[in-house]
Amino acid sequence: MNIRAELEKGQSKKMVLEVMQYVGKNQKRFKNLMDLFFDEDLRISQRASWPVGYCAEAHPELILPYLKKMIANIDNPVHNAVKRNTIRILSVIDLPEDLMGEAVDKCFRILDDPKEAIAMRVFSMSVCFNITKREPDLANELKVIIEDHYPHGSAGFKSRANRILKELRKMVD
Fold first, then answer.
1. Which of 43, 79, 111, 161 is the least buried, fewest Cβ under 10 Å from its Cβ?
2. Per residue in 9-42, is it b (16+ CB within 10 Å) or e — as a string?
3. How far is 120 from 55, CA to CA, in rounded Å?
4. Nearest of 16, 20, 22, 48 to residue 34 by alpha carbon
5. What ranges do the domains of the chain cover?
6. Mean pLDDT along residues 161-170
7. Three-state SS for 41?
8. DSSP 8-state code for residue 68
9. pLDDT tens column, 61-119
């Protein structure tokens, strides 16, 4: 399969599942997909971000060599889908300790910025919460940020916030 050619055809759930099945656990094929994820063509990187997320959830070991670059890429002028899928991946994997600091800094910044898309803020909240489980000193800071934004949050924000605040209160009280 030529993954680029598949991505150029358009974006669909069917395409995502076909790419995911083709990649499987194959590191070489996953590298090809990741090269497209970091492609300068924003349309290609956007379309690659969806199957990258599915592959990372199914086989988290494949994403590990790319995490540092992905986290750094959050600040680059990338398509929102790339940023959103990067943060979503960070929210569902066990982050290596050496990357937690940079990830939590960026996710706190996104969570605290009302101009960021809701999905990115909600995924960032999850990343920060997952890190606080391993770094409990951050729990109070996360609790304060969530409570500050709660009154103006969307339904999705409030739903995730309620679950996380319940756990954070156990940690800080």
1. 43
2. eebeeebbeebbebbeeeeebbebbbebbbbeee
3. 19
4. 48
5. 1-93, 100-173
6. 91
7. coil
8. H
9. 999 999 999 999 998 877 788 899 999 999 999 999 999 999 999 999 999 999 999 99
HSE of 18 in the Cβ direction (CA atoms, 13 Å)? Answer: 14
Q: What are phi and psi of 41, to 5 degrees?
A: -75, 110
Half-sphere exposure of 89 (CA within 13 A, CB side): 28
Structure tokens at 62: 């494949």
Q: What is the 3-state secondary structure (H, E, C) of 101-121?
A: HHHHHHHHHHHCCCCCCHHHH
The phi, psi pair for 164, rounded to 5°, reads -75, -40
Residues 126-138 have a mean pLDDT of 94
Question: Which residue type, as a one-letter code, is found at position 12?
Answer: S
**Residue given tokens 């598949």 in the structure block:** 6
